[in-house]
Amino acid sequence: MRARQATPAELRSPRIDFRLGFGIVAPNRRVNAMTTDAAFQRLAKSKFRSRFRLSEADREYIAEKGMETIRRHAEDFVRTRLAPAHPPNDGRQTPMRGHPVFKAQHACACCCRSCLEKWWKVPKGTDIPPERQSRIVDFLMAWIERQGCSPKPAAAKKANESHLTK
Ligand SMILES: [Zn+2]
Fold first, then answer.
1. Distance 165 CA to ligand 1 centre (A)
2. Which of 74, 133, 159, 166 lies at a C-alpha separation of 20 to 30 Å from 34?
3. How many A from CA of 3 to the centre of ligand 1?
4. CA 114 to chain centre
5. Roughly what angle, to the nearest 10 degrees, separates helices 130-146 and 67-77?
6. Helix, coil or strand: residue 155
7. Gap from CA of 86 to ligand 1 centroid (Å)
8. pLDDT beneath 50: ranges in the chain
9. Is 5 helix (H, G, I), strand (E, B) or coil?
């Protein structure tokens, strides 16, 4: 695909860089593409973000529910707790534990609108459009997978058990 010049309207309002996870391009700035790997490398530099880990209980919950269900939960949390321009209780809407997606949100700096703005340049006070919500969910699910939860954990566990009992 050929690159084209941004239109004046696009330069006035920030636009989404689709090569980024869900960041936006500031007016008149060059696109600063960031891969998911680069985003995780950035997060790894933060003591606070990098200390989050899934517990055994979280893993069991994920294995029991399946990754598709966990993704639906993540979609719901992002849509209802982050996406509105002014989410209720912003800054305190994401508990530190209680659901694996909550931990992913803190680990990925997707816990509140201030963190989304500070880390990923998602502007506060604006609705997050559905396509960017999906990018956030992709990112959270990538973190969960990196914690060693594969898309088919239940099957993997069974195979492992049968191997051990033989
Ligand atoms: Zn936050």
1. 45
2. 74
3. 35
4. 15
5. 130
6. helix
7. 14
8. 1-2, 10, 13-21, 24-32, 153-157, 159, 162, 165-166
9. coil
End-to-end CA distance of the chain: 54
Burial of 142 (0-12, 13-18, 19+ CB in 10 A): middle
CA of 19 to the centre of ligand 1 (A): 24
Instruction: Output the CA 50–ligand 1 centroid distance in Å.
Output: 14
Which three-class secondary structure state does DSSP give residue 28? coil
141 Cα to the center of ligand 1, angstroms: 18
Model confidence over 51-88: pLDDT tens digits?
A: 999 999 999 999 999 999 999 999 999 999 999 999 99
What's the gap in Å between 147 CA and the centre of ligand 1?
21
**Residue ranges of domains in the chain:** 8-150
